[in-house]
Predict the 3D structure of the following.
Amino acid sequence: MTYFAEIKIMANYFVPKTIKEFGELRFNEMFNEPIDAALHGNGSWKCDKVIGDESPELSRDTLLDTTTYKTVYFYQEGENDKDDWIFLVKTDDDVYVYLNASCNYTGFDCQGGGEVIYSKEFDRILVYGIPESVISLNHYQFLIKENLK
């Protein structure tokens, strides 16, 4: 199930949570497996900034350092051979990081991997970094922008 960080989808509003409100320990427990796999190169991983973004190049280690996360915009807790692990967060340096990871029932060592996409521009990561299959941009983009003001 996908959660838009506090989101009450039925009420059609979006409220991002700070990592403290969300629970840093809870977040780390939910995403430990894919983050650990990405950091250790288990599986096939892609790490890029959004096309046309002028942000400085950042390493996967920097992007996946959960101690720098300050806001959780949306997430989906994954499970081997079922749902993908997905999140969009903002770091202390105001970099938006999107992760999408999946693996088969044996874990990331056998058949797994994902992508880590980042940008300093929220609009750019929404439009160019996150597949429409993950988030319905036409519906949520306005709601997300309104909460960034």
Q: What stands out?
A: The radius of gyration is 14 Å.
